[in-house]
Amino acid sequence: MQVIPLNQAVDEQDWQALLAGAVRSSQQLLRLLQLEHSPLAQQLGGDADFPVLVPMPFVALMQSGNPQDPLLRQVLALHDEGRQMPGYVTDPLAEKEANVRPGVVHKYHGRVLLIAAGGCAVNCRYCFRRHFPYADNRVGRKQWQQALDYVAGERSITEVILSGGDPLLLDDSALAQLCQQIADIDHVRRLRIHTRVPVVIPQRLTAALQEMLAGSRLQTTLVLHINHPNEISSELVQGLHALRRQGITLLNQSVLLAGVNDDAQVLCELSEALFAAGLLPYYLHQLDRVQGAHHFCVPHERMAALYRQMKVQLPGYLLPRLVCEEPGQPHKTVLQV
Ligand code: SF4
Questions:
Q1: What is the pLDDT of residue 131?
Q2: Using alpha carbons only, what angle is made at residue 270 by residues 269 and 274, rounded to the nearest 5 degrees?
Q3: Can you identify the CATH homologous superfamily of domain 95-334?
Q4: Ligand 1: centre distance to CA 188 (Å)
Q5: What's the confidence (pLDDT) of residue 152?
Q6: In which residue ranges of the chain is CATH 3.20.20.70 found?
Q7: Ligand 1 pocket, mutate which of 201, 225, 226, 227 (most atoms under 8 A from CB)
Q8: Which residues of the chain have a pLDDT value below 70?
Q9: Does the beta carbon of 196 lie inside 6 Å of ligand 1?
Q10: Which of 123, 125, 131, 255 maximizes ligand 1 atoms within 8 Å of its Cβ, making it the mutation to test the pocket?
């Protein structure tokens, strides 16, 4: 399991090769971690509609022989995912209603979300979009134009968010073209890119990408998704520091996940490690009730107790806002605990 260091001369082909070589089965993942004979091997399943996908740099951050590894638990498909649980649905945020055009989700005032790619570099088992109809939101250049026409026609939109399917799966030239087309819409002032690619393939933060983002007239923010301090590799830190030097704002959002980060010490360490890497902890999300993810749910009382401990231990600027998303609401809901 070799990770190519970021400071090595890497070109786009390297991150794309790492993506192409990603692990695509639970059995393969267990073999790589020497867990093929562990009880976990009897619990596999649940990947028929949402396949396993884990790039090797992320696998390399897992602890071999540890069935409780917090990174492994986020990506290993278990048969628990196939159980139907009351209250867990395929579209927990009612995004279909806000899917105003192919590739466009318009939920909140002033901001619009563009689906820039038809998938991700990693399939997180708790993902609220694990049933999202990407096939109905094809993201070729023709669809982009329709999406951009929508943004151009809505003068209240000042911020465009590129989100999962992960926008950093686009190659640099396609991403540069899309960002330029967004910048050409004069009422758009800010660009936000939600991504997990640099966490699972830090080599994606190429010098060309950094320069392209820094060169835009738009104020650009990169929002990463990191749930556990073990996800923060030295290669990732190096790439993030380079982005900060280019003036890119860096934020992080996490999801509270049973068996992964439902521990006050881990959450505090995460905030500290994020800040050291140049990221501000922005949101800690309550799990969205998506079908297949019930085993990640942290009960409300426990969540409240964890957050109170974080409040005591962390300075205010390292305390992420504890939020949930309620379908139909015009903003996220900050949970008062
Ligand atoms: S990277 Fe984000 S959008 Fe993609 S599967 Fe993971 S949580 Fe879902």
A1: 87
A2: 120
A3: Aldolase class I (3.20.20.70)
A4: 25
A5: 97
A6: 95-334
A7: 225
A8: 1-13, 137-139
A9: yes
A10: 123
